[in-house]
Specification:
This protein is an all-alpha fold. The protein is about 95% helix and about 0% strand. The chain is rod-shaped, with a radius of gyration of 31 Å. The termini are far apart.
Amino acid sequence: MESDLAIITLVAIIVIGTSAVEMFKYYSKTKQKHNSHCVDDLLAQNKALIERIQVLEQLVTDDGYDLKRKFNQL
């Protein structure tokens, strides 16, 4: 009787342990996919901001911009 209970307990522990490991693997995989999407979004946003800064630098360093600013100050 005790050996039957021990076998049932051992099988239950193995089944529960295997299920827990598989759930953790799935969770880790899903979390990694989510993080990679966030990184891709941040890289795209960073690229867009760099392009905007480059355009603004071109506008500010343009000779016509300085001339317009001086006229506006008058």
